[in-house]
């Protein structure tokens, strides 16, 4: 078995305003191969990744440069790439006989901070860091982590994969999962909508930016932590579950009859942000954060 490194000649091609440079593909295991790709892009590039099996990590790097390292776990999967203008498409192409093990591809990318990302993932973990463009993700069971992003649209949908957002600011955020837990830490923006069918929803932040915060579940619990100085107009209701607030809210009228223990509504401070917490049978708790 040849365990040495095999290199192919570097190739270059220009497609409109985009230049592609493919570095050497390196075989370093039984059918395992590493590919290094480099793309020169313009402003606000679009990066698309479709990977059924394996993790994907994307972080901000130098302007106008997209660098990709892909580890293909066998010869049962190929890496297809396409470029058009400042758009880069990467697809893990599964061949006949591939499965979850042989079809795995591990991706690690650095992209310009202003890049927008579209990602379709199966069971692999996804990590996105320090992007300021739009981020659109669809996944099955793998966990999704978004860190220090903002200023764009962030839309995430999973089946059972956990979703975690940390230090995400000034974003238009929509997160949904059938069974995965959703955690938001230091997250704010003009619109933050979160829905999980059976997963738990946890929020720890300030409810700032005069935004609309809409959290809903079917059976999952909802827990929201806010500081004593929060400025919110809150409405919470669980049809068949208990609700609780640690705050002394200024009462307000509601569009439905209030039932003690299953709903509460009121304002705090200047009521700059709207907060809606709804569940069918999950527990809802608006907690005061201890500073």
Quick structural gist:
This protein has strands spanning 11-15, 18-22, 26-27, 33-40, 46-51, 56-60, 65-72, 77-84, 87-94, 105-111, 116-121, 126-129, 135-139, 144-147, 153-158, 163-168, 172-177, 182-187, 191-196, 201-204, 212-217, 222-226, 232-238, 243-245, 263-268, 273-279, 284-288. With 291 residues, the protein is mostly beta strands. The strands form 2 sheets. It has a 15-stranded mixed β-sheet that branches.
Fraction of residues in β-strands: over 45%
Structural class: mainly beta
- Share of residues in helices: under 10%
How many beta strands in the DSSP annotation?
27
Q: Tell me the Rg in angstroms.
A: 23 Å
- Biggest β-sheet strands, sense, barrel: 15 strands, mixed
- In N-to-C order, the SSE pattern is EEEEEEEEEEEEEEEEEEEEEEEEEEE
Number of helices: 0
Shape annotation: elongated
Q: Report how far the terminal alpha carbons are from each other.
A: 61 Å
| Low confidence ranges | 1-28
Number of domains: 2
What do the pLDDT scores average to? 90
Kindly describe this structure.
- The protein is elongated, with a radius of gyration of 23 Å.
- It folds into two domains: 104 residues, no CATH class; 149 residues, no CATH class.
- Strand 1 and strand 2 form a beta hairpin.
- By secondary structure, the protein is mostly beta strands.
- It contains no helices and 27 strands.
- The termini are far apart.
- The protein has a 15-stranded mixed beta sheet that branches. It has a twelve-stranded mixed beta sheet with strand order 8-9-5-11-13-15-17-19-21-26-23-25, with no helix packed on it.
């Amino acid at each position: 078995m040849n365990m040495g490194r095999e290199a192919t000649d570097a190739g270059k091609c220009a497609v409109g305003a985009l230049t592609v440079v493919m570095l050497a593909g390196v075989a370093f295991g039984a059918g395992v191969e590493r590919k290094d790709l480099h793309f020169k892009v313009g402003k606000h590039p679009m990066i698309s990744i479709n990977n059924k099996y394996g993790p994907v990590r994307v972080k901000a790097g130098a302007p106008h440069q997209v660098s990709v390292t892909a580890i293909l776990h066998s010869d049962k999967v190929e890496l297809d790439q396409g470029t058009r203008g400042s758009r880069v498409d990467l697809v893990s192409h599964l061949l006949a006989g591939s499965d979850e093990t042989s079809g795995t591809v591990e991706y690690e990318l650095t992209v310009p901070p202003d890049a927008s990302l579209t990602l379709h993932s199966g069971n692999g973990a996804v990590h996105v860091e320090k992007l300021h463009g739009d981020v659109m993700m669809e996944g099955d069971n793998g966990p999704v982590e978004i860190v220090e992003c903002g200023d764009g649209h962030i839309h995430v949908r999973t089946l059972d994969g956990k979703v975690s957002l940390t230090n995400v600011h000034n974003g238009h955020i929509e997160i949904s999962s059938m069974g995965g837990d959703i955690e938001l830490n230091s997250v704010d923006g003009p619109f933050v909508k979160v829905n999980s069918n059976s997963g738990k929803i946890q929020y720890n932040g300030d409810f700032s930016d005069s935004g609309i915060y809409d959290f809903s579940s079917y059976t999952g619990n909802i827990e929201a932590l806010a500081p004593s100085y929060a400025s919110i107009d809150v409405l919470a209701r669980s049809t068949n579950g208990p609700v609780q607030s640690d705050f002394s809210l200024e009462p307000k009228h509601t569009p439905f009859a209030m039932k003690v223990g299953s709903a509460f509504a009121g304002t705090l401070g200047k009521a700059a942000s709207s907060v809606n917490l709804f569940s069918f049978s999950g527990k809802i708790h608006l907690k005061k954060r201890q500073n």
